[in-house]
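Aggregate trends can hide what the representation actually does to any particular protein. For completeness, the protein is quoted in full, as a sequence line and a line of structure tokens.
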Amino acid sequence: MPNKTCFFYFIIKNELIVLNFEQVINKLNDGKLFLFNLDFIILTTLMVYLLIKQSIKDYVVWKDAFDQFLEYRKIGGELSCEILEPSEEESEHTILSKWVNQKSAQEFLESQSFEMIKELEDQEPSTIKVVPKKEIE
């Protein structure tokens, strides 16, 4: 049986906030969240990871430009992103991001934002793969 995770999406002051069930309960218990005056949607999805391997010449410049797309990625369904530096044997950085579902990750890969991110470097990413959560964890 697939591992399903429940997420709560809140729009507060024009900002998208994504919380899992445990985070919502903790915020309710701490008095930091009140549901009676918020519009929210509850979605249950099968989360996936997006794995990208990319050669990056100037990491500082690339990271600054990559971070400019954070809002577009979040709106598109990205929950988190981790960038792993290459080992001495490798020349590629690994970008591992968590997405709400396969459809949102695939839509991001087909988006103009992703095309612009790819253009930050001369070479295309060597690996672009959507990976089910169960294969990572």
